[in-house]
Amino acid sequence: MTDPDAWPRVLAEIVARSHRLPPDELTSTVNDALAATRARVTIFLVDVEQRHLRPLPDPARPTPEPLPIDASLPGRAFTLLEPRSARGDPARLWVPVVNGTDRLGLLEVSLPPGGDPDDRSLRDGLRLVAGLLGHLVTSKREYGDNLRRATRSRPMTVSAELLWDLLPPLTFATADIAITGLLEPCYAVGGDAFDYALDDGVVSLAILDGVGHGLPAVLTTAVALAALRAERRHGGGPAAQAGAVDAAIRGQWNDARFVTGVLATFDTATGLLRYVNAGHPAPLVLRHGRAVHALTGGRRLPMGLSGPAPEPAELRCQPGDRLLLHTDGVTEARDAAGEMFGPARLADLTERCSRSGLPPAETLRRVSHAVAGHRDGELVDDATLVLLEWSAEAARRSEP
């Protein structure tokens, strides 16, 4: 279909049906709206381990196999946030599905006989459909389990189920910043978590690591997240947020449990970074291909333990800088010979991926998988990464 005037009708029909749309009817609704074009779609969602694109079931057709993200044409459309096409019988077009800049999956479009996958009107129209679908996936997954079930290859532990529901979207961008986070192991996380918020041009960042493993660690981290969010929403900065976490943990438990973490604010107008480090690995500032700062200031005891409460440390960043936060499960991952992944390797790999022009979310996906590939056997500690890029170019690469 090349008629540009037809696409508003397609979008209008999807919107009209969306108000009372059950989550498991997303695919059939989109296909009904596209009926006049004779194109048919399959919706694929990225799995939590970020290795496959998994299809949403469609009662009208057999469910296809998952698509590998690495080394496949559809996977390339997802990783680079660029449509990809293949001629054949039928011709196919793969269009990224995002909510804002959070990568959710892929729209696979089977075209009618004679359909041209490189037709500009067709591509533009389907990008609009994919954009609307990203918003619908995000809103509708709260009303049923099918959309979440489609992103899993195996059951989650109770601790992982709880923690994933507490996290913000994995990726967010504005005109001049991009923020993305990722954690492993996906199905059995311990006490790692991250958080961010943007208000009046100031980004609030947090990365946390609750002591212990499994559900007790996640419960501690959950309380810490709630406490810092409550204080942040009241107007408190990093030091006040850390104090709120102290009080919340000590008020709930008396077994000396604690949370390490970095709490920070970043002013996108001035580049001023203010941070508190509560017994956590030092974040890295990356610039021009190398790590130029390890944020060793602002030190205090882990949150939940009594001790001095120093003022936040400060650093003036430069446009183009990347701020990389991580938990110890990343740098302390060991291979069969006992060699740790290490901060130098982490910084080098992050910079190489970023310089290659990848979207920030794809940079972090590849770094996370490199850590997983380095370690010998199962991950014994959570490995969480958060990357903030102060760059209009990085922000642009975050959208399709």
Can you tag this structure with a few keywords?
six-stranded antiparallel beta sheet; 18 strands; alpha+beta
In brief, what are we looking at here?
34% of the residues lie in helices and 26% in strands. Strand 5 and strand 6 form a beta hairpin. The protein has 400 residues and is an alpha+beta fold.
How widely separated are the two ends?
21 Å
Structural class: alpha+beta
Radius of gyration: 22 Å
Q: Number of helical segments?
A: 12
Q: What is the global morphology? A: globular
Helix content: 25-40%
Order of strands across the biggest sheet?
Answer: 3-2-1-6-5-4
Secondary-structure element string: HHEEEHEEEHHHEEEEHHEEEEEEEHHHEH
Strand proportion, as a percent range, falls in 25-35%
Mean pLDDT score: 92
> Could you list the spans in which at least 5 consecutive residues all have pLDDT below 50?
none
What does this structure look like?
This protein has helices at 6-18, 26-33, 73-80, 120-140, 146-149, 158-166, 214-233, 238-252, 328-331, 343-355, 360-374, 392-396; strands at residues 40-46, 52-55, 67-68, 84-86, 92-99, 102-110, 171-173, 177-184, 192-199, 202-210, 259-267, 272-278, 284-287, 290-294, 299-300, 313-316, 322-326, 383-390. It has 400 residues and is of the alpha+beta class. The strands form 3 sheets. Strands 3-2-1-6-5-4 form a 6-stranded antiparallel sheet, sandwiched between helices. Strand 9 and strand 10 form a beta hairpin. Helix 1 packs parallel to helix 4 and helix 7 crosses helix 8 (238-252). It is globular and about 70 Å long. 46% of the residues are buried. The mean pLDDT is 92.
